[in-house]
Every structure is written in C-alpha cells, then in structure tokens.
Amino acid sequence: MQIVTVVAPVFAARCSVLVGDDGACVVVDPGAGAGRQVRALVAERGLRPRAVLITHGHADHTWDAPLLARELDVPVLLHAGDAYRLDDPFGTLGVLDPRRDPAGPLALALRAAGVDLDSWIPPARVEPFGGSGAGRTGDVELDLGGLRVVARHAPGHTEGSTLYLVDAGDPDPVVLAGDVLFAGSIGRTDLPGGDDDAMAATLRDVVATLPPGSRVLPGHGPATDVATELATNPHLARHR
C-alpha cells in the first residue's frame, strides 16, 4: 500500500490518500482545499475510491469531505462519538467558531483559502462505527475493499478521535493520528468535547502501547514515530 500526502491550505492539515496495489483508494481527512488535489490524483491514476475516513470532526479535517464523497460516490466513515459534528462543524468548535470570531485564526484561514463559511452541507452518506458512549470503544476493522485499516478509538481531543492503523497486520503499522499526537506534542483538550482525563488514558493505553517502530502521520506537522515520541515527547514521559 502507498500513502500519498496532500496538505490542505487551512492550518496545513494533512490529508492522506491510501492507495492499494489494485488501485483501490481511501481518503483520510480531506480538509478545506484538499478536495481539488485528491480529485486530480484519483483521475490521474485511475483510482477506485472506497471511502472517506475522518479522524475527528473538526472543520479543518472535514470541510471537503461532503462534496468529495458525493463526487466519488463513497460514504464518510468516522467514530460515532463525533458523528454529530458533521451537522455543524463550526458549532462544535467553541471559541474557534469563525462565525463567533470573524477575525479569528480559523475564519482568516478559511477566507484566505476561498471558503464560503455558509456553504457547509452535511455528507449524504455517513457510516459511523464504534459506540457513542463516554468510554473508549476499542478497535474496529474496516472493510475497505482490500485495504486493511483498523480504527482505534483515542478520545481526548474530541469524543470520537480515532487513530487509523494502516497495514495493521504488519509489526510496525503506519498510524494516521489526526490531532491526538504530534511530533513533540499532543492535541488540545480545551475545545468542546475535549477531556484531559480521556486524553491521559489515550496516551497511556493507546499511544504508549503502539509498536515502537510505528510511523506516525499527525494531522498537522512533520511525521514521527512512536519510539521517538516515547523518548522525547513530554506528554508521554510518564508512559515510557
């Protein structure tokens, strides 16, 4: 499997396109402005899309998902804990809601990318997985037409934040981490749905137990690996 990275112009959010040997593909986190690049990649390579996956329901990771899923005729998959965010991704951002703060960072980034703040239309086909309760719901193996991806619930940044383990049968899978883990840092927990205790449990029980050789592709910023984060990330120091 190949992973192609597309960087969206809003907050430089990472969109990953998983491409199987047979041309099947899955799009993960198509943020604002990523859709155009994804469509070009699909057309250029003659790929066969299977789904759009979302690591969590914040607008900088979901904005292009509804239109892209419609155009590619595929469903949008995300953890049930974040499914409600697709009805109004701005309304679940609290202080970052660009309608409440039109001069704030998200509002400015969206306008710079040419995004109409009133143009959101929820996806036509949403297929939530996992439970919607407060506790962590564990692993779900997703059926994506030959592309093996395991969704591992990792709440804390949001209720439904999810790690996607690509080629999960390998000793060292690639981890699409969304905003759970960054190189040297972790996702914020002060927005609606964030939870310090849930994040601490995720770091201890989910992140720290990943194979050390696993490569991590965060939702923003450079790639890293689990061993490096366990050794150097101050938020993981107690879990080494």
Automatic annotation (TrEMBL):
**Matching SMART domains:** Lactamase_B (SM00849)
- The answer to whether keyword S-adenosyl-L-methionine applies is no
Q: Please indicate which superkingdom the organism of origin belongs to.
A: Bacteria
Which InterPro entries does the record match to this protein?
Answer: MBL_Glyoxalase_II (IPR051453), Metallo-B-lactamas (IPR001279), RibonucZ/Hydroxyglut_hydro (IPR036866)
Q: Which SUPFAM superfamilies match?
A: Metallo-hydrolase/oxidoreductase (SSF56281)
Q: Zinc among the record's keywords?
A: yes
Q: Which keywords does this Swiss-Prot/TrEMBL entry list? A: Hydrolase, Metal-binding, Zinc
Gene3D superfamilies per the UniProt record, alphabetical: Ribonuclease Z/Hydroxyacylglutathione hydrolase-like
Q: What does this protein need as cofactor?
A: Zn(2+)
Q: Please list the residue ranges annotated as the Metallo-beta-lactamase domain.
A: 13-220
Official protein name in the record? MBL fold metallo-hydrolase
Species of the source = Cellulomonas wangsupingiae
